[in-house]
Amino acid sequence: MALYHPTTITQTEMRNINRSAVFDYLRLAGTSSRTEIAQQLGISLPSAARIIDQLIQSGLVHSVGLEKGGRGRSRELLEINAGGNLVIGVDLGGSHISGGLVNLGGELLQEFHAATTRDHGEENYERLVGFLRSLLEQAQEQPARMLGIAIGVPGILESRTGTVVLSPGLGWYDYPLLRQLERDIATPVILENDVNLATLGEQWFGAGQGVRDLVMVAIGTGIGAGIILDGKLIRGHAEASGEIGYFLPGIQFLDNQYPGFGALEGVASGRGIVERAARRLAELGESPEPSELHAVDVFRAAQEGRPWAIETIDETVDYLSLALGNVAVCLDPELIILGGGVAGSAHMLIEPIKARLQGVIPRVPRIEESALKGRAAILGAVVRAIQKHIDYLVVYNS
Asked: CA–CA separation, 222 vs 197, rounded Å?
């Protein structure tokens, strides 16, 4: 048995921490000078200047001119070179692929979509490769360098090897996705869990800006969560942190098998909402085809006052309240963000969930809907590309 032992910080890691802090400060400040950065971060001016020079040489930072200081002195102003760097962000879903060209400022320059085929692993891979090649062709027309590609993959991903351990919606099981992409795509590729990528996007560009402790819960074909605590993305021992679709939302879910999708997903995902609504309709003598009913239809019918839909959404709120209450108690986040395909109806979920949890758990965190909606993972690609490029490490003072 391996024993846990404290780790020390090497000089290289310390340099990475300082470089990451300088980059983050400049990203949030907009423009700044070497002197101001050194003062605000509490590092020496020579150290700040050396880091800035490295970031300029790497093309991530550039000068935007001089500003007059006191006693007639001028100082060079610096900012993130947003327009000079591009990232391709891709969000792989169980039914479609979304992707786009994004600059380092989070500006989505072009956006594309394509369909995926459920359970057909090799077919989905070929569609992904074709999708990436089309995006790379579009990127060549932009007057900026390509920093890399980041892809959000649903399910459990072994990020160190790029193997997709489990992604039932795409038909990938122990699938060597990164190895295949490195063979077929010349541009560097980063793989990340799709909800993790969306969570990073929300923290840098969306509802989670300035928040150190947050959880994003994505409700779509499945249900997953991205967890950031003290500014750090939490992966877990087997990189399965946040797989809350496998939460057991009641004792009746014990002693059952849940191949592919988990118990919570079976009742509260978009698919689960549709299946429960369809059963209620069948009891009323209506039997819609599965392809004819979608979660958005159920939410719309509930707004229109249809009893079968109201009952379905109320039950969904119950299940999600159990899940979010457990998340809040275990992780104590400042903020929970609701995203995914159901995010467009989050306004029908958030207040009822908060009402059910009030007084039941010690503290109900802020619960908000995604600010970036379906673009969260695409923008999160920028975060991961930068983090890899500068060996990003973050440490906060307590």
From this structure: 16
